[in-house]
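Q: Here's a chain of 320 amino acids. Please give me its 3D structure as tokens.
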Amino acid sequence: MASSPNSEARAAAKLSTTEGFILGGIAACIAVTISNPAEVIKTRLQLQGELAKEGVVRVYRHAPDAFVKTWKNEGLRGLQRGLGPAILLNGSRLGFYEPFRREINELVGQSPEEQIPFTSVLAGASSGAVGASLGNPLFLIKARMQAYSPALPVGAQHYYKSSFDALSTIYRAERLRGLVRGIDAAILRTSMGSSVQLPSYNFTKNQLVKRGILPDNSASTFLASSFVSGACVCVVMQPADTALTRMYNQPTTQTAEGKVVGAFYKNPIDCLWKTFKAEGVRGWYKGSTAHFLRIAPHTIVTLTANDIIINLYKKLRDPR
């Protein structure tokens, strides 16, 4: 039986798992290079005044002040601390999403092309959890490298010459346990963020096109959808993000049994509870302005670039 022109067109337009992973990864790498300075500022603000109730002298007054001081004292290198591991992390997380979503859709008997809120959220959370689990050592060294400041230190300070030096130093001191430190916080944080980032983006984009508000496959549609997605991520993920930063950066201590453990927190829930008791809800949302300044452009560039790159790739791959 001959296939219809429409089915052939759909087959040609469909991306393979490998293609989706690579194209998503490229988009994420572009985005993280742009947004990394804001994440450096966010990390330092989250660590400032850690577990202190009041009366602490603040090194940084707010996000713009932290940006200016970092630039003056450390230059571009200071603002881009942790960029290497950040690129590797974000590329893998976005690349996992689309293959996961398509497989889950097929598993529940739906078309792989259809955007279903439930399966999209599940795919986002799953891709985030997988990315966080596989990339935990990179998450760990990224947070520590971003927190390090030779001029205006806040929180525990960990100096590493490079990503490789960081990984080898941690492994020599704590073995594999040191490299998976904070993995529960990473899964919680990334699952929460990923569960809303791509689903809210796709839902907004579909609604804008469906209701005739904006045209399909246009830059304005991509930008509007990305902005909504960035706001959703920032609201949902901030407390878990603060817990992740503090768990990764906390100093370690050795127990009587010779076990190396975190000096401040046992797990992300313990971190959130202790932060709340000492600093209130405001402690959970330290660095939220910098977080939004990071997540909004990061989400906009990631998802907009992802759609633009995919459309461009399809035109090059399937010329008419």
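Q: Can you summarize the key feature?
A: The two ends are 24 Å apart (CA to CA).
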